[in-house]
Amino acid sequence: MCIGGAGAETRTRAHASALYPHSCLMAHIFICPNCGNRSTATDRTAGFRPQPKGCQKCGFGFLFELLDDYYPAPTAAFFACDQTGKVIACGRGSFELTGLDDERVIGRPVNEVLGLRFAAGDDPVQTALEWGVRQLGKDVEVNAEGDLPARATADLFPAYDDDGGLLVVLTPAS
What we know:
The protein has 174 residues and is α+β, with helices and mostly antiparallel strands.
């Protein structure tokens, strides 16, 4: 048994998670910024190594951990950013939505590259990075380089590992 050692009584998953937050009973939910594949695992790393899990579907090098399951729209575009908000990878749907690819955007601030203007006038990108909180359902105007402005909804997920970072998911407004 994973929790409590020998002779531990059987507990419900919720009870075990509350008592032993780092036990092997907790399933973590991950999403790949490259292909959008969702997966679950009981560990954040690959085997005994401290290396983060990669995507089993497309082979992308790292996954973002989610607090809750998340179902992106089929038309959603993914952008992975480092701890300062600079783009490190364009994922699924990014070229279709913006016409941008990795070669043109890697190393540049996501707000600049995508021309993000949030409806409320705030900066959810900075909030997610600074405070480590998700920002969901944010109305935004996307004005990527050389593209016409388009309305979208932004969902921002901070990375919870030591490297930090941010996953920006943009869904075109219908």
